[in-house]
Design goal:
Elements: E1 2-9, H1 13-24, E2 30-32, E3 46-47, E4 57-58, H2 59-72, E5 76-78, E6 82-86, E7 92-96, E8 101-109, E9 113-115, H3 121-125, E10 131-132, H4 135-138, E11 146-150, H5 154-164, E12 169-173, H6 183-190, E13 195-198, E14 201-207, E15 214-219, E16 227-232, E17 235-238, E18 242-244, E19 275-277, H7 289-308
Parallel strand pairs: 1-2, 1-8, 2-5, 8-19, 10-17, 11-12, 11-17, 12-13
Antiparallel strand pairs: 3-4, 6-7, 7-8, 9-18, 14-15, 15-16
Helix pairs in contact: 1-2, 1-7, 5-6
Length: about 325
Amino acid sequence: MEHLPLIILGSGPAGYTAAIYAGRAGLTPILYEGLQPGGQLTTTTEVENFPGFPEGIDANELMENLRSQAERFGCQIRSAIAVKTDLSAAPYHLWFDDESEVTCDALIIATGASAKYLGLADEEKYRGQGVSACATCDGFFYRKKTVAVVGGGDTACEEANYLAGLAAKVYLIVRKPYLRATQIMQERVLNNPKIEVLFEHNTLGLFGENGVEGAHVVFRKGEADERRYDLPIDGFFLAIGHKPNSDIFRPWVKTDEIGYILTEGDSPRTGIPGIYAAGDVADPHYRQAVVAAGSGAKAAIEAERYLATLPTN
């Protein structure tokens, strides 16, 4: 069985930044790309809020640049997905979908979090062409346009308010006849003249020739007074939550009730020696590429310090 000093799981900004730092430190890290090479950022188009690119940069180009930089410093990148772990004791044991098994002294978990979608075929069709799961990332592209946000909790209300500062009109599509958000968030939405809440509405699909031009919606689906109509919009934002990709680690590391890995203070330490969590898998609050990159750097620095304490063969 192959034994490696340091494994990084995930190829988003957190994973690649960890690889860059670890590679420069001479740790010869091995990075497994995971479910989505390049991470969630590759589901959007242009990135305008990553430092160092005053004119913005294509999301896939940014991730390719990070990948190349990691490889420049000696990181080996593998295209396998971790399916099982045993982190009960060092060396830590991992199994992958290509039937390989490895052990390692240190592990950086940067597997991210997957946005929840409604399950409509049109969501995939228009992804990056009007469909987004991150208002902070993509809201700027909808200045003075009309958008819809799906959801009724705090996140949906927060995103609707954020978008109202940019867009001309925001529809908040809520499945229930009430908002689940906290009272203060409800008040902000209901008192914002640019936000219209569509209670008891469901989205049936999206339409448009060169991107989203509208949504097929239904009021009181399945009831006697059901009414279906088309809602003209330019952007469709999902705000129904994220699922951290942490299932295979949960028997060993501490998580919150949703599955986000809990770390010690503002560090990436999980409480298990040599095991670190970086990026969206441990971040229920910000979910920004630059924040993930910073946490990846911290994880690599911690891993370097930990590995330096181990006896050499």
